[in-house]
Amino acid sequence: MAERTVAAIATPNAAGGIGIVRISGGDALSVASKVFVPAKRALTLADVPGYTALFGTVIEATGESVDQAICLVFRAPASYTGEDVVELQCHGGMYLMQKVLRLVIAAGAEPAGPGEFTKRAFLNGKLDLSEAESVMNMISAHGEQAANAAYHALEGSLSREIRSVSDVFIAAAAHMAAWADYPDEIYEEELDYDVLLTNFREAYDKLDALTKKFDAGQAITEGVETAIVGRPNVGKSTLMNRLLQRERSIVTSIAGTTRDVVEETARIGNVVLRLADTAGLHESEDVVESIGIQMAEEKLEHADLVLAVFDGSAPLDDADRALLQKVSSVENRKSIAIINKSDLGNVVSEEELSPFVSAVITLSAKDPDCYEQMRMLLEELLGTADFDPSAAMLANERQLDCVHRAMAAIKEAIDGIQLGLTMDALSVCVDDAIAPLLELTGESVSDTIIEQVFATFCVGK
Q1: Mind giving me the DSSP string for 18-40?
Q2: DSSP letter at 115?
Q3: 106-135, pLDDT tens digit by residue?
Q4: How far apart (Å, rounded) are the C-alpha atoms in residues 175 and 183?
Q5: The CATH number fitting domain 6-123, selected from 3.40.50.970, 3.40.50.1100, 3.30.2040.10, 3.30.1360.120
Q6: Are 319 and 231 in contact (CB under 8 A)?
Q7: I need a labelling partner for 379 at 20 to 30 A (CA). Which of 130, 149, 274, 425 fits?
Q8: What ranges do the domains of the chain cover?
Q9: E strand or H helix at 102, and its extent?
Q10: pLDDT tens track for 168-187
Q11: Alpha-carbon 133 to chain mean position
């Protein structure tokens, strides 16, 4: 249990009906008793059991009343953090909440750091590291599928899958260590090469399946950085508005209307797109327009998904072909060529564009039906059509890196078995596979990684 008692506002930094100041640590009840007086004066916070709610008043050190409040008491270890926790639920004015927090700190608490409550839950064994990371995913979820996926991760879906793999190698490592010390007492079947090979391959396949679902999971939970690019007046802004299903970008018949990057987030079916409508790509001597074109080029270079828009009613020109080359220059990036203005007739064929992109679609961005066309194509391309939020899923790049390192070690172990390496040599590969898996769940992880994980959390969670 941490020695410091910390406090923070646990509700958003905005006015609301209720605001919560959370206190956690060994002195939480003592600190809270200095600023909260129960309506029933005979009661004291030191005497009430956990999971108790008391109505009363928040007071200053002088005894002057500040606000009416409800005080919730949770006793260790049956609390979110595993420590004694008190939550003061007051009226949610921003000034009022800051004042209550100042009183709590003056009474002996220290300001909590980012994610400190969840960090304490991890350190006190209430959550493993992957479950702790899912807390922020729940907070930032953009839709039902993302929220469900985060909830199931919090419930341990990923942890169970990772442990089912790590247990295979921990058992193998234990047998190998015992064999090294007592070679005559270890049963042959426990270290049979064929059995090990089968178990290691099954473990590898489980991890490989997680990596293959990573991009789809990110599209649902984190969103996909998406650039809408093309020549001026091909319909980029019209497409942007159609995907958002509201008027966000200015649309006119004048080429070059968009001179800046217009950014917005759209949820399209299961997919979250962080859209950037960019200036038309062409040569320009206009200083302002040139800046917009440069920004468009940067968005094109760094986007995870490119929606390249072409005017289907006019033949491809050199600028279109140059755009296709730029889109295809980033290896493994997903891209869609959109042949727009189909209502005006098509002279551009999908076959012309398909060698350069992941998928091609012909549509009219003016037609409301194109939203559904794009939804189906995006879900197919990003692998979210059959997304199962209850299945184990990697939540971020840290977890993906751990799995990749484990897979590399497992691959070496499999190759070693096939080459007939000794158990001593194989044991090194097995240990190398175990380490990143335990790092993923936080069972064996450095303080630096822990700090990095919780630095991304908001204060109060």
Answers
A1: EEEEEEESTTHHHHHHHHEEESS
A2: T
A3: 999 999 999 999 999 999 999 999 999 999
A4: 10
A5: 3.30.1360.120
A6: yes
A7: 130
A8: 6-123, 135-213+393-442, 221-382
A9: helix 94-106
A10: 999 999 888 877 666 665 55
A11: 8
